Amino acid sequence: MEWLTLISTLSGGVLGVGSTLLVEAVRARRERGHHYVELQRTASVRYLTALTETEAALQALALNRSTPIANAEVVEAFRSRHVMAARYELFLVAPPSVYSAAHEAYDRLRAMRVAIATTNVVVSDDSADWQAIHVPYDDAFRRLRVVMRESLSPGLRL
Asked: Is the pTM of this model over 0.70?
């Protein structure tokens, strides 16, 4: 009879410890998942902010000066908002769909930079030349936001 009590006590202890370890493992995994999503969210916001500020800097430069503008000045405006650093940060944590959309938006922004430095373009809603370089960027930026939102909230329709 004492053996049965001992076996019952040991079995209960093993089950108790095992269930505690299982619960802790599940909780730790969930916390890691939340932390990773938060890293993605932070990197996404930084990248979107850098894109927006870089676009604004390029537009301000082109609004205040006649184009084409010296390449060094355009590159300085482009780099001043740290879009490359934000891009690298995003690429470390982004899923492939976000990486692809982020790359597309960057390429379109870079095309805007090149156009301001190499062509005579007037920044205006009435300018066909400006619309030809700005609309593709704006479309890519919108797609990026949608893809980011979907990656951060899977299954949630916004």
From this structure: yes
